[in-house]
Amino acid sequence: MISIIVSSVRDEVFDAFAESVLRTVGVAFEIIRIENKEGALGICEAYNRGASGAVYPFLCFVHEDVLFLTPEWGRILLEFFESDPEIGLIGIAGSKTKTRMVSNWWQPVIGGHEPKRGKVLQHFVNKLPHITEWWEGDSQIDEVVTVDGVFMVTRKSIWEQNKFDSELLTRFHAYDFDFSMQISQNWKICATRAILIEHFSLGTFDIDWVKETLAAHKKWRTCLPRSVHPDLDVQNFAFLEHQFINECYAKLARLRTGMTDSLRILYSAISLLYPVASMKGLYWRIKMTGSWMKGYFTRR
């Protein structure tokens, strides 16, 4: 019933992943391994190749560095889809809000309300792995705006109408945000805490992440900001969006991106919020230029 598609880099990691699926999935399945050891394929292209050859009606796009800890997780997923025909995509982590500004799915607590949904056993670099759960209420599944790309499940018929945008996103970033936004135009997006995975790596926030995430946000700028949280209104997101501008600046500074490239990226990000000719747009461009020049001379 489920075709499991994975872009694979390491044999030993894939073998552990495949054995975990075999022990836990609980329904008929196939694993479609797209070997990508040299990183020649972007993840969008890899996933589209895998999905095109899938034989089952449900597609699971998942990273290979995970182990499944919940028995019968395939059956749980199918029951969710059968119980609500409006569901088009399910992940194990996601957010009920998304601002206009460049960011990943992870959104901080806003006004005392937790927008994140999910549950995962995550490994870290400098601390012990532990289970983190983000939730409000008693349900096992909840509607969100975006899901994290570590694990995403949809119907093959939905993927056929919403294929990963391999022309825009050629590397390994923002595919989950873009895929969520595509499907959410006609279907409900959900995250569940009923399925627990163990995830062995953290995301990579390099210059490719910045560029691809910016490109995806430009694509969906007319659909943002968005909230499906009953107590979080998009009109109250301005402070958070300004915070994300500063975080984008901080990422570029840590990456030691050149001033010309950094300011071009920052100006483009600011335009997601404010028109180029507006006073607020001018204010933020001047602020970022001043901050970058001050930081440049300090670093020297």
Layout of strands and helices, then pairs:
Elements: E1 2-8, H1 11-24, E2 29-35, H2 43-52, E3 58-62, E4 66-68, H3 73-83, E5 87-91, E6 93-95, E7 97-98, E8 116-122, E9 130-134, E10 141-144, E11 146-147, E12 151-155, H4 156-161, H5 175-184, E13 188-192, E14 197-199, H6 207-219, E15 226-227, H7 238-254, H8 259-270, H9 279-299
Parallel strand pairs: 1-2, 1-3, 5-13, 8-14
Antiparallel strand pairs: 3-12, 4-14, 5-12, 6-8, 6-11, 7-15, 8-9, 10-13
Mean of residue pLDDT values: 93
Radius of gyration: 20 Å
Give the structural class: alpha/beta
Q: Helical region count?
A: 9
The first-level CATH class of the largest domain is given as Alpha Beta
Order of helices and strands: EHEHEEHEEEEEEEEHHEEHEHHH
The proportion of residues forming helix, as a percent range, comes to 25-40%
Quick one: CATH superfamily of the largest domain? Spore Coat Polysaccharide Biosynthesis Protein SpsA, Chain A
Order of the strands making up the biggest sheet: 2-1-3-12-5-13-10
Q: Termini separation (Å)?
A: 58 Å
The domain tally reads 2
Strand content: 15-25%
Question: Which stretches of 5+ consecutive residues score pLDDT under 50?
Answer: none
Q: Which architecture of the largest domain per CATH?
A: Alpha-Beta Complex
The largest sheet, given as strand count, sense and whether it forms a barrel, is: 7 strands, mixed
CATH fold type of the largest domain: Spore Coat Polysaccharide Biosynthesis Protein SpsA, Chain A
Please count the beta strands (DSSP E, at least 2 residues each): 15
Using the alpha-carbon principal axes, give the shape. globular
